[in-house]
């Protein structure tokens, strides 16, 4: 037991994950090299996860579940990993994503950034890299958040896809994110999105001024039973609301927003102008 680091599972979710990995391994009488063979991951990486020096990835968690025969059970390493990821997201958002994956109609509004379901991987990675540079999250967390977004997008690509209605403030297409090629690819993706049969894309122009009813992210979901769920986000908080008396005013304001915004054709023209660098 030379150089064995004592673990403190209560110190963080990451430490708890590592402690469970070690205890599961030792219960089988495996050394880290043995587990490395079962998981197809280096023993050094396993050591880093066990001692909370490295952040586990989704691939790592799934490999651990296979190695320990936990896949498909109620308490998997993948579940623990998702709980860790959710801890780095705003309150209410993981639950919102669960509703979003089942919604029949999705209405989105955003200021400053392209809404998540419309982001390219490169654009999303550039956003998360900004958080890393500011020291808000680790590079590993950034990678996992991008992967979470891609999974979120994949859940919307189902046989009967939802109707997705998006209104973006003009700042979303004017604000450069990442390298020029990243932004160019993102704007091209928006035009492709607007051409889909189950989508509507509109831009709320700067000229709308005070008539724009929202100043922050607002998402509205219509579920199969016609219930409506709202999710509103600020810089530091997210709030999921299912009470119809609170949701109806947001839905009314969203309809007013659509009426004041540019048509889809005019919105696509503005995006094309932004691609060419013209005002």
Q: Mean pLDDT, nearest integer?
A: 90
- The top level CATH class name of the largest domain: Alpha Beta
Q: How much helical structure, as a percent, in the residues?
A: 40-55%
Question: How many helical stretches?
Answer: 12
Unreliable residue runs: none
What proportion of the residues form beta strands (DSSP E)? 5-15%
Give the CA-based shape: elongated
What is the total domain count? 2
What is the fold named in CATH at topology level of the largest domain?
Endonuclease, Chain A
CATH architecture of the largest domain: 2-Layer Sandwich
* Largest sheet: number of strands, sense, barrel closure: 6 strands, mixed
| Computed CA radius of gyration, to the nearest angstrom | 22 Å
SSE order, one letter for each helix or strand: HHHHHHEHHEHHEEEEHH
Structural class label: alpha/beta
Please list the strands of the largest sheet in the order they lie side by side. 3-2-1-4-5-6
End-to-end separation in angstroms reads 66 Å
Number of strands: 6
Protein described:
The chain is of the alpha/beta class and 279 residues long. The protein has two domains: 9-86, 434 Repressor (Amino-terminal Domain); 91-276, 2-Layer Sandwich (Endonuclease, Chain A), CATH 3.30.870. Helices cover 51% and strands 12% of the residues. It has twelve helices and six strands. The chain has a six-stranded mixed β-sheet, with helices on both faces. A hairpin with a 5-residue loop joins strand 4 and strand 5. The longest helix is centred in the middle third of the chain and has 18 residues, at 139-156. The chain is elongated, with a radius of gyration of 22 Å. The model has no long low-confidence stretch (mean pLDDT 90).
